[in-house]
Write the structure tokens for this entry.
Amino acid sequence: MTIAEQQDNNPYDICTWRPETECEGCPLRDRLKCRFRTGDLLHFMALFIGFATPAIIGAIRGGYGWWMLGWFAFDMFFFNVWESRILCSHCPYYAEEGSTLHCIANYGSLKLWRYHPEPMSRTEKVQLWIGLAILSVFPFPFLLLGRQFALAFVAFWGLVLFFWTLSKYTCTQCVNFSCPLNRTPKAFRDEYLRRNPTMRKAWEESGWQMGDVESKDS
Ligand code: SF4
Ligand code: SF4
């Protein structure tokens, strides 16, 4: 892809979607997950599979396999419509031009909404917690009704590892700063916002206050 084509893909001029050559010298390089890396996507998928696989096997063994279609339908709705609007539409990855998402978690999801450079609202954060709770809890009643206690425990442990590992290794470096799970240090957030004027303006209009220290590279 040429530089001109890459810029056509980037109507909000988000640095995540600028040519990677512009990242040279950036102090955030290798400190944020600010550019798509296949390894980050595989890491996310492996963690989710570690939860979903024992849950699905347990439901099938317990005689409740068809109910998992309901879980699948909810997941499709959540990732493509609901979460996509309340969480992902605020993410720099979502700012790329195009109809599908190319990010380190929900890769391939539909982009039905416009990009929202401002932070998530409180209502959106509450909705995210509700959606994540449904996503996490859905299989367990069927595992317990089917008396699949060992697989229920393995699925529960997979769920714990999913959130624990994400929190430790992804949420501390993620560029969707207003997600309630995000733990990226303020100095890194400020530095990223300095490189992204569209986001910075929207964040400051929402009440965000930048720190004093400006990087020599910004
Ligand atoms: S913050 Fe932006 S400019 Fe810096 S490394 Fe990440 S994508 Fe590149
Ligand atoms: S919030 Fe996470 S899942 Fe959504 S676009 Fe950003 S990186 Fe992808």
